[in-house]
From TrEMBL:
Similarity comment: family membership: Belongs to the histone deacetylase family.
Domain of life: Bacteria
Pfam families: Hist_deacetyl
Protein name: Acetylpolyamine aminohydrolase
Classification via InterPro entries: HDACs (IPR000286), His_deacetylse_dom (IPR023801), His_deacetylse_dom_sf (IPR037138), Ureohydrolase_dom_sf (IPR023696)
GO-annotated molecular function: histone deacetylase activity; hydrolase activity; metal ion binding
Record-linked PANTHER family: HISTONE DEACETYLASE 8, HISTONE DEACETYLASE HDAC1-RELATED
Signal peptide interval: none
Keywords, sorted A to Z: Hydrolase, Metal-binding, Zinc
Occurrences of domain Histone deacetylase (ranges): 28-342
Swiss-Prot/TrEMBL cofactor(s): Zn(2+)
Tagged with keyword Metal-binding: yes
GO BP, sorted A to Z: epigenetic regulation of gene expression
Length: 349
């Protein structure tokens, strides 16, 4: 299996996120990707490549909104222009156009613009956020191209920040550009008529769902902690099934906090059946490993060995597959859990 790494991920390094009235240290840290790469290397996944080219903006601009992209690209410069002392702090929103306020208001105020594009106060924009995200997008697009051409059966994109909470024109949940959506769109553009995205991160991939909600060509399936109690709270319920042409092409399988692998695995069977019934010819896996029992911000009870099983069950779908790294915050063990998925997938032949 091909491993593609985003070698600019370190440039996104948030300092604080807002949580329960205080600024706490970010859990989505550069060390995460380093530990994954270290463990893959130890296991002998020798082919680790860095994508040589910049992200194809045609793909990025087909998934994301042009004004949102311009905002992200310029955000740090605008932040510093407000006050050079801002360089010591990250950008976080403090005001939002909810409750009847106008999201399309022609405001010139920078803070107001941040709030227009952010849906939480836990996802700081830093000096290197744009460059790190764009390099991540390049990795996801390149992985999808290699898999689409048939030169690889499977590819794993080791990148951060994650992407599945990012929508067409919004960021949140530590996510800015939706790497899984970019991979899926790339597979579509390469001729795969039906592409499925399977999201196994503990948190519902609200961004991915919203990007494809009205489309019948990309099936989105997610297994996650019940949003009635778990982040992102406002999306991810079982009754969200798609809209318009997309009706029937979104499947949510929320599970209660405390769910262990026997029940989780039954949901994976259901998800993979849906992918097969849909007739997907390619698969993107939004690979969060925060379903792990020791994850500090999640509530499922999976063991490290379960991730090997997940990898082999996904391989049993027999589809060209792009794995894109999402969450996982039990930093010490996340390398093992990601490498287990990769090994389970590879060894299943
Ligand atoms: C991103 B991904 C922790 C609060 C939770 C948001 C969680 C985002 C998860 N202090 N904040 O899906 O792993
Ligand atoms: Zn997550």
């Amino acid at each position: 299996m091909l491993i593609l790494q985003n070698d600019r991920h370190r440039e996104h390094a948030g300092r604080h996120e807002m949580y329960r009235g205080r600024l706490v240290e970010c859990v989505e840290v550069p060390e995460r990707a380093e530990l994954v790469l270290g463990e893959l290397h130890r296991r002998g996944f020798a082919r680790v490549e860095r994508p040589a080219v910049r992200a194809d903006m045609t793909v990025v601009e087909s998934v994301h909104d042009l004004r949102y992209l311009a905002f992200l690209r310029q955000a740090w410069d605008h932040w510093i222009a407000l006050d050079s002392a801002n360089a010591s702090f990250d950008i976080l929103p403090s005001v939002w156009p909810n409750q009847g306020l106008r999201r399309d208001a022609p405001t010139q105020n920078f803070s107001a613009q941040v709030g227009r594009y952010a849906f939480d106060a836990g996802s700081p924009i830093t000096r290197g956020t744009w460059d790190a995200c764009l390099a991540g997008a390049a990795s996801a697009i390149e992985a999808a191209r290699r898999v689409a051409s048939g030169s690889e059966r499977g590819a794993l994109v080791v990148t951060r920040p994650p992407g599945h909470h990012a929508g067409r024109d919004f960021f949140g949940g530590y996510c800015f550009l939706n790497n899984a959506a970019l991979a899926a769109q790339t597979l579509r553009d390469a001729g795969h008529a039906r592409v499925a995205i399977l999201d196994v991160d503990y948190h519902h991939g609200n961004g991915t769902q919203s990007i494809f909600y009205r489309r019948a060509d990309v099936l989105t399936v997610s297994i996650h902690g019940d949003p009635a109690t778990e982040y992102p709270f406002y999306l991810g319920y079982a009754d969200e099934r798609g809209e318009g042409e997309g009706e029937g092409f979104n499947l949510n399988r929320p599970l209660p906090k405390g769910t262990a692998f026997d029940a989780w695995r039954r949901e994976l069977d259901i998800a993979l059946e849906a992918v097969a019934r849909f007739g997907a010819s390619a698969l993107v896996v939004a690979l969060g490993v925060d379903a792990y029992k020791a994850d500090p911000i999640s509530g499922f009870l999976l063991d490290s060995a379960d991730f090997t099983t997940i990898g082999s069950l996904i391989a049993s779908a027999r589809l060209p597959t792009v794995f894109v790294l999402e969450g996982g915050y039990a930093v010490a063990e996340m390398g093992i859990n990601v490498a287990n998925v990769a090994e389970g997938f590879s060894l299943a032949g």
